[in-house]
Write a structure and sequence with these properties.
By secondary structure, the chain is of the alpha+beta class. The chain has helices at 2-15, 42-55, 110-114, 132-142, 156-161, 165-172; strands spanning 58-67, 70-79, 82-88, 94-100, 103-108, 145-148, 179-187, 190-197, 204-208, 215-219, 225-230, 246-248. It has a twelve-stranded mixed beta sheet with strand order 7-8-9-10-11-1-2-3-4-5-6-12. A hairpin with a 2-residue loop joins strand 7 and strand 8. The longest helix is centred in the N-terminal third of the chain and has 14 residues, at 2-15.
Length: 272
């Protein structure tokens, strides 16, 4: 009887070899039940992810960016006509950004403005800087207000880059060097396939294997930070702030650029 039972079990295991798991006769297909992106060549996976990202109406992006030896925390919600969120490197260097169409606003504590981003006095001689007292007074007036950034300010495009969905994502979702398909995994409970550039030195992207192949995690080239992407297609409120919350200095606002901010073109030059 035992011999016959053993033979029956063995026969069942052989007969079910195409769908095995219970009998231990083979490995489970990691792409079973997925959107199939995990079976594509790495360049095709990257293209699918970039196309999905461009087509999405909205996204939430958060994580760390390393630029010029400093680490910045970014938490932004972006959509076609603007974005809103926060960029910070410390409590004194934290500011909020809001863009609705071409109108761009920056909101920060007085300490941020006092460190160099100050409005120029309307009657100050061009050869002199604002007096220390004037600078402190101006910073106090800007404290926790939405300050409209003039479109011709040198920092306008750099700030805008953090609120421009297509510009920001095109930079982040471009891997550098020879692409390779990596391991299957999970990010926030979502099954993913990994794509690497230059064996990881050119960046890494985790792409969802569930539903639309959105990118869900990006490691920037050169170890320059990691960002999570979620909330794909989820709309959010975006409106110009009330006048009593806004300060408009026209063309007189001075905002430092360069080393004071990380580059929003995250994929193009990861070390800057």
């Amino acid at each position: 009887m035992r011999t016959r039972n053993a033979a029956l079990v063995g026969a069942l295991c052989v007969g079910l070899s195409a769908v095995l798991t219970a009998c231990g006769g083979g490995a489970e297909d990691p792409d079973a039940g997925t959107n199939g992106v995990g079976k594509l060549e790495p360049a095709a996976i990257q293209d699918k992810a970039r196309t999905a990202a461009r087509g999405a109406e909205a996204v939430h992006l958060s994580g760390n960016v390393v630029s010029q030896g400093r680490t910045y925390r970014i938490d932004m919600r972006l959509k076609k006509n603007g974005g809103t969120g926060r960029v910070s490197s410390s409590a004194a260097s934290s500011f909020e950004l809001l863009r609705v169409g071409d109108d761009l606003y920056l909101k920060a504590p007085a300490g941020f403005w006092a460190k160099g981003a100050t409005p120029a006095p309307s009657k100050a001689p061009t050869s002199s800087a604002p007096a220390k007292g004037d600078k402190a007074a101006a910073a106090g007036k800007l404290d926790d207000k939405y300050v409209k950034v003039p479109s011709d300010d040198p920092a306008y495009q750099q700030f805008r880059g953090f609120t421009d969905k297509d510009v920001l994502l095109d930079g982040l979702l471009t891997l550098h060097g020879t692409l390779a398909r990596g391991d299957h995994g999970t990010v926030g409970g979502v099954r993913t396939i990994r794509v690497t550039g230059a064996k990881g030195g050119g960046g890494t992207m985790e792409v969802s294997l569930t539903g639309t192949p959105y990118p869900v995690r990006v490691q920037r080239a050169g170890g320059a930070g990691q960002l999570e992407l979620d909330g794909w297609g989820k709309d959010f409120a975006l409106a110009v702030p009330d006048k009593n919350q806004t300060v408009d200095y026209g063309k007189q606002l001075r905002i430092p650029s360069g080393g004071a901010l990380p580059s929003s073109g995250a994929g193009a030059d990861p070390g800057k």
